[in-house]
């Protein structure tokens, strides 16, 4: 008997019987649990759950309906998808290409379960990289006073390529509040510090001037509050007094690559669930 593999996420108020209801629904469709994780926030009373399972049904809607029917009384936020249905992720970049190249390499090597249908940039510096990987490149300049027009063009590209999520791989433009709201929970940014930290220009030079002993990077969801969105992943590296600002920047780029790749992988595997300003991450 052939089977399909599915990933389900569920969030609701913590109430007795939720796991029993899901298990019963899966049993009813001859499902078999392959991986299971759950968490209860005892402060807020929120219950989160991620289940990876196999079932003979090939129709995702049928499988979702079975789980939704069994859990209806709990009013959950429920997602169900075939594991083979990978998210379509638009990558945005400016001139620093290290995060872009790393993501594309990992995606091509099968390390990140996503598709990259298009790359968008406000510069043409990375166009050759998109050509190397055979991915369409869209140049959308952001002229002073014309951010709204640029974002309208971005929306057109997202619709054209049926995009599920956006990754800002060192895209050095601030998104409007309206776009941040539209992309809530679907846009990931990498920040060049272990937040909270040095904001603005030349962060590693600021860190050098302050004699820091740890530098890092933070991947988070994009919100209207600049660099204050729910955190997905972070990383740090110890540095010494003899490191120059340029050496800190090199070390920082390595951390940024790794942290962003981890965050995007977690997101693509439906392991990140939002809870207000926080995230539940089933690693």
The appropriate CATH architecture of the largest domain is 3-Layer(aba) Sandwich
Uncertain residue segments = none
> What kind of oligomer do you see?
single chain
Overall outline: globular
Discrete helix count: 8
**What's the arrangement of strands in the largest beta sheet?**
7-6-5-8-9-10-11
Average the pLDDT over all residues and give the rounded result.
93
* Content-based structural category: alpha/beta
Q: Largest sheet at a glance?
A: 7 strands, mixed
What is the string of SSEs from the N terminus onward?
Answer: EHEEHEEHEHEHEHEHEEHEE
User: Strand fraction band?
Assistant: 25-35%
CATH class of the largest domain: Alpha Beta
As a percent range, the share of helical residues equals 25-40%
Report the end-to-end length measured between terminal Cα atoms. Answer: 31 Å
Give the domain tally.
Answer: 2
CATH superfamily of the largest domain: Formyl transferase, N-terminal domain
Question: What is the count of β-strands?
Answer: 13
Q: Would you give an account of this structure?
A:
- The strands form three sheets. Strands 7-6-5-8-9-10-11 form a seven-stranded mixed sheet, with helices on both faces. A four-stranded antiparallel sheet has the order 2-3-1-4, covered by helices on one side.
- The protein has helices at residues 18-28, 60-71, 98-108, 127-133, 147-160, 177-182, 203-210, 245-268; strands at 4-13, 32-41, 46-55, 77-82, 89-93, 119-121, 137-139, 165-168, 187-191, 214-221, 231-238, 272-275, 278-281.
- It has eight helices and 13 strands.
- The two termini are 31 Å apart.
- 33% of the residues lie in helices and 28% in strands.
- The chain is globular, with a radius of gyration of 21 Å.
- The model has no long low-confidence stretch (mean pLDDT 93).
- It folds into two domains: 4-82, Alpha-Beta Plaits (2-Layer Sandwich); 89-281, Rossmann fold.
């Amino acid at each position: 008997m052939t089977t399909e593999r599915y990933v389900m996420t569920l969030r609701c108020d913590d109430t007795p019987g939720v796991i029993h209801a899901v298990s019963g629904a899966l049993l009813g469709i001859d499902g078999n649990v392959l991986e299971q994780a759950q968490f209860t926030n005892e402060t807020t009373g929120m219950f989160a759950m991620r289940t990876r399972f196999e079932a003979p049904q090939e129709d995702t809607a049928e499988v979702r309906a079975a789980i939704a029917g069994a859990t209806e009384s709990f009013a959950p936020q429920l997602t169900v998808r075939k594991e083979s249905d990978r998210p379509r992720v638009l990558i945005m970049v400016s001139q620093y290409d290290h995060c872009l190249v790393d993501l594309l390499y990992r995606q091509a090597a099968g390390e990140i379960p996503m598709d990259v249908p298009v790359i968008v940039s406000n510069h043409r510096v990375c166009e050759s990289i998109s050509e190397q990987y055979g991915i369409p490149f869209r140049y959308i300049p952001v002229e002073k006073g014309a951010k709204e027009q640029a974002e309208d063009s971005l929306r057109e590209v997202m619709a054209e390529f049926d995009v599920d999520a956006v990754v800002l791989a060192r895209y050095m433009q601030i998104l409007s509040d309206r776009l941040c709201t539209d992309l809530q929970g679907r846009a990931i940014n990498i920040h060049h510090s272990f937040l909270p930290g040095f904001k603005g220009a030349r962060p590693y030079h600021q860190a050098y001037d302050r004699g820091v002993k740890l530098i890092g990077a933070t991947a988070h969801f994009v919100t209207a509050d600049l660099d204050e969105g729910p955190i997905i992943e972070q990383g740090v590296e110890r540095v010494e007094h003899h490191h120059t600002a340029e050496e800190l920047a090199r070390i920082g780029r390595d951390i940024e690559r790794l942290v962003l790749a981890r965050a995007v992988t977690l997101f693509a595997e439906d392991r990140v669930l939002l809870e207000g300003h926080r995230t539940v991450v089933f690693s």
